[in-house]
Amino acid sequence: MTAVIVIGGGFTGAAVAIALCRRAQIPLDLAVIEPRVEVGRGVAYSATDRDHRINAPAASHFVTADDLEGFDRWLRQTGDQHAARNPSGSRLRHIHSRAMRLAQKGEQFQVRLENGETLIGDLAVVTTSNEAPRPPAPFATDLSSDPRFLVDPWDTARRLVGVEGLEPSTR
Prior knowledge:
Layout: E1 2-7, H1 11-23, E2 28-33, H2 42-45, H3 70-76, H4 80-85, E3 91-95, E4 99-105, E5 108-113, E6 118-121, E7 123-126
Parallel strand pairs: 1-2, 1-7, 2-3
Antiparallel strand pairs: 4-5, 5-6
């Protein structure tokens, strides 16, 4: 079996894995490396705050033109169901870890994972997204440690409490 390693399991990584399963002429061993619990959400669709509207609603994205609601339906259900029904008979698995190093050794690729494991593949596809937000240079001072300065808009666990005129988020 040809081994394919997809690094990053957001929208693009999930779309790549699905396309490979559908178009492969031979069964593939596909490993999608994604630290989040669910494949397909990534940065754009993992926000839980209703006010975090990134790109567009999931329903406006599609993976194949013959099924315009397919990505939204799949996102709401589970990507694991595709693994059992792919036409190429490929093996699709979610590696719940983070890729730390990618190296080419001859004809193969080695991916060192955060959990210490090393994956070896015939092909590596990098579909990573944005790094965690950092404060802009002028604000990367004492200001960035102030509890009222919110660097990461996806940090829904952090609430602005005690700031005059602002109420803690209840959404």
